[in-house]
Amino acid sequence: MRKPVIIVAGTRPECVKMAPLYFALRESATLAPVFLATGQHRQMLDQTLTAVGITPDYDLNLMAPDQTLADLTVRALWAIGDFLARRAAGDPVPPAAVLVQGDTTTVLAAALAAFYANIPVGHVEAGLRTGNMRSPFPEEMNRRLTAPLARWHFCPTPLARENLLREGIAPAACHVTGNTGIDALLRVRERLAARDASLGAPAAAAAQLAARCQIPAAFAERYLAAAGGAAATGAGASPWLLVTGHRRESFGSGFENICRAILRLVESYPELGVLYPVHLNPRVQEPVRRLLGGHPRIALVPPAAYEDFIWLLDRCRFALSDSGGVQEEAPSLGKPVLVLRETTERPEGVAAGTCELVGADADKIVAAAGALLDDPAEYARRAALKNPYGDGAAAARIRAILERDLAA
């Protein structure tokens, strides 16, 4: 009988990056994936589960209005611990492992619950560090506290492995696998190319996506209808930027500064458009809609489904984002990223030149964006740099390690 491996996900990024591993384990002769959704981010998680084709085996539905980090942590720890206890008591084969991904509250709670239940933990995307416990908050703390609880550390890069070794993690437990997010991205890009080809004219794909994402028709016609991702940089194409932001450290004046930088850019570049899928958190919505709402070349839309977001990322000129996932995905698509953070746990992208840290400093954002908009040679150089985060085979490597170590 195949041994159950519990895959835990509570947010959109976790779902995206665990999906390739879930499907890889479904093909295993010895291990069987069990998908546990915590519902930490309910709407965006459900949207992504549908996009990747996963129906959770169990759903804890933990999201509550105005939940604090302490509330969520306590409820997640209790609920996941109760779930694991019931599985261990009621199934003929108890869980062989629990897999978590990244640095969310779900990750820390699941790792601690599994540790209490004496179930080995595998940490996907292990070893990322900024060196600042408050940036990002609380993610840096979550991933640091998860490390000593894990048996397997699946590191996306050699630098991530080095970080763990410096913290005293055993070398044999640290495996450089690449990032499963790149696995997901490459598969989605293939599906999108096939879908768009079936629609014929590029404008048809743009119109369908605009309707799904609630993008104003005038914006879509001007900025999205060009053929292919490369058209966004071609002669005569109207440039547009893709923006995302959600980090707690930017709440308040940080988001106001980012919005003021965006306004300065559209005022300085009369052809420039900005598409901003606005995070659902009210502390993001309020300043963004107050400062940017109503501008004819700035489209504020709801968060896009994963496949639609990749379609957009593939066609923008470049991205402004505080997302870790975007820092990994954009280089695979040849898109530079201005990182709206003071620190990053993904320094490989900065070292490679595909990403640039600009924080929430309006002057830095405007200067860095201007360099990419004004200098075609500099843009081309940064767009051509190699992605340091993987080759699309991370999930297969992780499956092979688990099959080997759980064979007994």
Overall strand count? 13
Strand order of the largest sheet: 3-2-1-4-5-6-7
CATH domain fold name of the largest domain: Rossmann fold
Determine the CATH superfamily of the largest domain.
Answer: Glycogen Phosphorylase B
Describe this structure as you would to a colleague.
With 408 residues, the protein is of the alpha/beta class. The chain has 2 domains: 3-178 and 393-405, 3-Layer(aba) Sandwich (Rossmann fold), CATH 3.40.50; 202-383, Glycogen Phosphorylase B (Rossmann fold, 3-Layer(aba) Sandwich), CATH 3.40.50.2000. The protein contains 17 helices and 13 strands. The model is unreliable at 227-232 (pLDDT under 50).
SSE topology sketch:
Layout: E1 3-9, H1 12-26, E2 31-37, H2 42-52, E3 58-59, H3 69-90, E4 97-101, H4 105-116, E5 121-124, H5 139-146, E6 152-155, H6 158-166, E7 174-176, H7 180-199, H8 202-213, H9 217-224, E8 240-244, H10 253-268, E9 273-277, H11 282-292, E10 298-301, H12 306-313, E11 318-321, H13 324-332, E12 337-339, H14 347-352, E13 355-357, H15 362-374, H16 376-383, H17 394-405
Task: Describe the structure using short key phrases.
single chain; 408 residues; alpha/beta; Rossmann fold; 2 domains; 7-stranded parallel sheet; 6-stranded parallel sheet; 49% helix; globular
